[in-house]
Every structure is written in C-alpha cells, then in structure tokens.
Specification:
mainly beta, 4 helices, five-stranded mixed beta sheet
C-alpha cells in the first residue's frame, strides 16, 4: 500500500511581554497587556490561521483544518491549549492563559473494491476494504471449457496480471472490478486440401478462431518442397472471431515427382498454446503429377486465390486395353448416330462442343444408350463412354475425353485440335506423352468425339506414341480399342 501523505503547519506567535518579563494573566503591574504563543501542528492535514495572530491572555485563536485527499479529519484535538470547539472546518481554542499547542490529525479513508465475474471463479469473491491509494489482489480462474480474458471491466483504475492473479491500480474511490472468460478458442482451417501449380500463383489458407477467447501463440509447421514458401512465419495471437491468413507461394519443385503414383502431400499443422490442432494437405503439382487419382495434364491457375487450382487428370491405368487388347471395347454397339458430339459440333446450336468437351459428349452418348431413349439399355461395360461411368478410386465423375483433350492434329486430319505448337487446349499428348511425364500411355484410345462425315460408322481416336508418330485418326465404331478415362479435379 502507499505511505500516508503528511503535511503540517506550525504557527508561532510572538510573545509580547512587559519589561518585567512575567507570566500570569491580564496585565502586569505597569498595566501592559500580556500575550501568549499558540503553536499548531498536524498530520495529513492542511492548517490555515483564521484569527488572533497574537493571543492576549484569556483570548482565543482559530484555525481552518482540512484533511489531505484520501483522509478524513479527526475532531479530537491534542495539545496543551484549553479545549475548544469546531464550526465546520474551523477550530477555535479555549481561553489561552499560557503558551500552548494544538495538534490536529486525519485518518486514512477505507474504500471498498467489489469483484464480479462471468464464467470465472474469483477469490476472494466478496467486497474488499482497501486504504486510500492502496491496491488489492484477486485470483481469477476460468470455468471448465472457458479461457480467461485479460480485459478487466469495472470502475477501478487499471491494474496488472501475474499469471492468474490480478492486482488493481491505486484505489482512490469505491470501485468495482469485473472479470470474464470466453469459450475456449477453436481453430478451423479454410480448406482441408490446397493444390498449387509449380511456379504458379500464390494461394491462401485461412486459420480462423471460432471460439470466444483469444488463441495464443498460434504457429504452424509444413515441410514444403524446395522453393515454396509460406508467410507470415507465425500467426501469434488470434483474437476471438479473427483470422490469420497464410500465403503460400509455390516454387518450381513439385511435392511429388511426376509419375509417382503414390504421392504424399505436405501436411500443414497449426495450433496454439491453448487450442486444438488443425491440418491441411498441400500439394504443389505440375504436369504428370498424380493428384486426385489421376495424372494432371491440364491446369487452370486462374481460380480464386483461396481455392485450389482447377484442371483435368487422366486415370492412372487403362480402363480398356489399347490395340485390340483382351478387354478392349468398341465406341458403340450400333450405327445409331449420337447427335451433337462430332468434331464439327458446337454448343449452341448443337448439344456439345464435340471436339473439346468430353464430359458433355459422354453424357450424351450414355443417355443415347440408356432408358428411356433406348430400351433395353446397353451394358455400359461394353462401350467406351459407358466404361467411364464407373466409380474409380472414390470418384464417380470420370468421362471419356474429347479428341482435342487427348491431343493436337499433327497430321491435318481435320479434328480442329490445332498444332503441336498451338494446340486448341492442354492435352494428354503434349503434357503427359511428349514430355515423358508418364510411360504407360501408348497405343490407340477412343475419344468421345464422333466423326461428322460418317457418324454412323466412324469415331475419332488418338494414337499415343512417346517417340513421335502420334496421330488423330478415324476408326470404325465397332473396332476394339483402349479407354483412358479423365475427370476434372475439384478445387
């Protein structure tokens, strides 16, 4: 506690005596007046002379006495002067008949600090008496499932924390302190998985605190491939309802080498000193990387920065063997023309962009071979587009690629797929076969694109050759060729 404030004022008055010196009262033998000295002092008060600087025998002296801030004046007056009386703050001595003293005092005020709390226990939990200028302490413990906040409400002067103990500031009036705790911090991550293109656009992961109290000392670990970075280096404190945004910038090295059929994504793990742990899987991928159960051959890096890249992958293995293999299949089992899926089809006015939109083509081909358009329906395992409707590796959105998804028109066959230097779109041929990113795509594979000149008899297929000689060709729809299904990755 603070030391009491003290002030004192001592008033001395001259003693005028007759030539004979003398004491006694009234006047001396020569008839001259005798005066006496009144000396005033005090503790924790201010004293001001009001009257009678020179006190004649039998006279009185008056003083104004005011306690210093935080103290209350005592009405009891000590000293040797005859007892006097108070009139508000003015004290008047009794009759002065000799040199004498008056001593004033004041008592320090006792104030009350009242604690309260929400979702906490406070010890002591009752109002506390505190001397003016002093401090008092409370131990604050959060209830189960809650975390104490350091913000303190109430009217007392702000104090300090030492662990769970709060010490008020100097108390100068009756006041209150109010403690609280919010529900424990809960971290969440904006996406369970995030894919980035090698040397591509930066993308963000957001760590959010959905609890009712601050998440403290939040940091993360992530063993990214060489050249990839994350900023900031740590999140620190994340206030309740707030977020920490991590920006991930991919380098040129993928998290798994092209062709690795069992890649292990990087695990980002984030937690605080008082929180749960959240994780996200980060994949830095390029052409030929295996992602979402397929070899990545088309990449769209223009998706929103808080999402994964988009793109297209080819299944890791054949769904039907190429070049008349034992499980090769026909394009279709009849001469029924499928409308709107040829290399010349556009959408609109036709159903699909037949040379580039294999997903649309597959939907139309399967519908033409299924009830109600065809009764009974054709077994999907017996024709190329139907094979791709199976669920594989947990995904059910596979389709038979269009001819321009498979490759470019290197021989001028008329598919409209462009040249090797300027293909219509990103292709399996350019980004998987030509680049040598995978070694198991070779031979004749059906596309979902029907021939526009002889649609009842012919459909387009690609011949993949890693050493050159790849081609886009027309083939009889009943021929038995290979199938490699593809799917669009989900951001």
């Amino acid at each position: 506690m603070g030391q009491p404030l003290k002030s004192a004022m001592v008033l001395a008055f001259s003693l005028a005596l007759a030539a004979c010196g003398g004491g006694g009262g009234g006047s001396d033998d020569s008839g001259e007046t005798i005066s006496y000295t009144v000396t005033a002092s005090g503790s924790n008060v201010g004293i001001t002379l009001v009257s009678a600087q020179s006190v004649a025998s039998g006279g009185q002296s008056s003083f104004s006495v005011v306690a210093v801030p935080g103290y209350t004046r005592d009405n009891t007056v000590a000293g040797t002067c005859a007892a006097g009386s108070w009139a508000a703050a003015v004290y008047t001595t009794g009759p002065v008949t000799a040199n004498c003293t008056v001593t004033f005092s004041a008592t320090i005020n006792s104030l009350t600090v009242t604690p309260s709390g929400t979702n906490v226990s406070v010890s002591p939990g009752t109002p506390q008496a505190v001397d003016f200028g002093g401090t008092t302490m409370f131990t604050v413990t959060a209830d189960s499932g809650y975390t104490r906040t350091n913000a303190v409400g109430g009217s007392c002067t702000a104090g300090t924390w030492a662990g769970a103990v709060y010490t008020t500031g100097a108390v100068t009036q009756d006041c209150t302190v109010s403690f609280s705790a919010g529900s424990n911090p809960v971290l969440t991550v904006s996406a369970p998985a995030l894919a980035l293109s090698t040397s591509g656009a930066s993308r963000t992961l957001t760590i959010s605190n959905s609890g009712g109290s601050d998440a403290l000392a939040v940091g993360y670990t992530a063993n990214l491939p060489a050249g990839s970075t994350i900023a900031p280096a740590a999140c620190g404190t994340i206030a309740a309802g707030n977020q920490c945004v991590l920006t991930i910038t991919p380098g040129a090295t993928p998290s798994a080498a092209p062709g690795d059929v069992s890649p292990v994504p990087v695990t980002l793990s984030a937690s605080g000193s008082n929180t749960n742990t959240v994780t996200a899987q980060i994949s830095v991928v390029g052409f030929g990387s295996v992602y979402q159960s397929g070899y990545l051959f088309a990449i769209d890096d223009t998706t929103p920065g808080n999402e994964s890249i988009a793109g297209t992958v080819a299944a890791i293995t054949d769904q039907a063997s190429p070049a008349s293999g034992p499980d090769a299949v026909s394009w279709a089992d009849s001469t029924i023309v499928i409308q709107g899926v040829s290399e010349a089809s556009t959408s609109p006015p036709d159903t699909c962009n037949g040379n580039r939109d294999g997903q649309c083509n597959t939907t139309e081909i399967v519908a033409a071979n299924s009830p109600p358009r065809r009764v009974p329906g054709v077994d999907p395992t017996t024709y190329a587009a139907g094979v791709c409707t199976a669920t594989m590796d947990g995904y059910s959105d596979w389709y038979l690629p269009a001819i321009c998804e498979m490759g470019y028109d290197s021989s001028g066959a008329g598919t409209g797929c462009g040249t090797q230097g300027a293909p219509l779109r990103q292709t399996m041929q350019a980004n998987l076969v030509d680049n040598g990113n995978i070694g198991n795509l070779a031979g004749n594979y059906w596309s979902s694109t029907q021939d526009s000149v002889s649609p009842a008899q012919l459909a387009w297929h690609s011949f993949f050759a890693s050493g050159g000689g790849s081609a886009q060709l027309q083939s009889g729809r009943g021929n038995l060729l290979g199938v490699r299904c593809v799917r669009a990755v989900t951001p």
